[in-house]
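ok here's PEP-utilising enzyme mobile domain-containing protein:
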Amino acid sequence: MVDIAPPWVVDSPLSTRFPVYTRANAGEVTPSVATPLFWSQIGGPPAEQVWKRVLADFGAFDLDEFRDDAIDIQGMLHGYVYLNLSNLRVFGARMPGASPELMDRTYLGERSDVPPYEPHPDDAKPEYTERILATVNRVFATEHRGDLVELAAETERSRAARPDYTTLSDADLVALQRERMQQYKPFLYAHLMLVYEGSLVTGLLETTLAPLGDPTLVARVLTGLGNIASAAPSAALWRLSRLVTGSPALTAAFDAGLDGVLDRIAALDEPAAAEFRAGWDQFLHDFGSRSAMEWEAMPQTWETHPQIPLGLLERMRLQPDDRDPEAQSRRLAAEREALTADLRAQLADQPEAVGSLDLALRLSGVFMPARELSKSNLIRVLHEARLPMRALAQRYVAADLLQRPEDITMLREDELDAFVADPASTVPTIRERWEWHAALSEREPPYIVMAGEVPPVTSWPLRSEPNVAPARSGDALTGLPACPGVATGRARIISDPADARDLEPGEILVAPMTDPGWTPLFTSAEAVVVDIGSTMSHAAIVSRELGIPCVLGVQHASVRIPNGALLTVDGTAGIVTVH
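and the structure:
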């Protein structure tokens, strides 16, 4: 029986200057126990260095406010990643027009278990406000983000330069991984900076529309923006699905089951099959880096585990033609244009408000697509950095030293050299850490923790015994409205996009979390309900692009809602009604 009481292999002491931490947002990105390789190679200290520099360059902090060799913006507690809420509150205190309470609502929604903000003498100082205003002026003057297009071209060059891993030694693979992780840092910087810059744009939009008294307006004017990188895989898969539905031979190949479907299609001698094969190869080239849990050290990407996108395609081919995501996006764009014309009419006697609205809408068209492109660029470069580790691990699986490639993720980055020198000696350590990892995974981490007041991990509730009441007929579960619209259908609880084949046409996807690796499944769902997430999460942005009613931040939805229950999802009001 493993003892889970000690700190996990890569745990770090919590900050006393910024003492409040939350699983909000962090739980969406890293829902399970973090592996040592992820935290030491991708998250943790490597990301912290970049993140601190972003906050300083944005103007919200000085670098000397953070501990030099410690984690302050993030948190790692018994393997679970946390986001520092105190840090966000200080950001809100220093941001003109914002507040700590606004940051709470943005990231947490309305919750009763959040400790009140306690001001620190250094929180609000005029010099930070002046620096942030300089950033605001820079952002509001932005016309385009061509720099991200160039970064996208760099990811393509990196993909094209992928070597033949079989020709590299074990030490060469480790060195290549480290080299590519250095190349990854500018992409991380660009993405993190865009997260903060994008918050300025949405803040302007919310401030401009608030006097109209309709809380649904922000989500509605952000629908159908077009050119959303994280929605592109859905459109590409849809085109492939229409090839299948338009070809009896391709349909028969899929009807025979997903196992061996690509081999059956390869054996077909007809134009539709050749077009499908070319389209599938291009899909994996363009989007093979995507996956669920995209930040982990060795996720099941679409390139390494193609059965996952094949399962998404299998669900998509059953949808009628009117679910075409590109057609939906055009419809939503037309609705958005009509709505914005109406808003301008309502504000016609307020020229300043009309000017603010036009500025916010223009900037939304720049920064929302830019934010998603920055994430796609980041993940594509990260994918190229992780593949050498998978190649290395597969060698040791073939040599019967490791049971599966993922075993290597139980090592820290600084343990890789010793592993290559003497892999057999690390096998017991890997086995012990997997047992520890499994035991921690059985626990539900607290949503909010404070430095010095963390409950013992042995007291954390077991996931198998959730302390929540099942939803009953008539219950109305509230969350954050992410995409407007109303839909009714049966609930389908899915915890992993690999289980896509369980989702039937007309059903409502209910999930504990989603990230871009899930989003092609949205096209096959009548609506989407997620336990966690914010109105600016990737799930929200993609659902608005696809026109799928979506409610995020519905606490314990995937546990409380029975599989098969009849639901009505109101993505405009943020309410899920159980019938």
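+1. The chain has three domains: 1-141+444-462, 175-211+226-347+354-383, 476-578.
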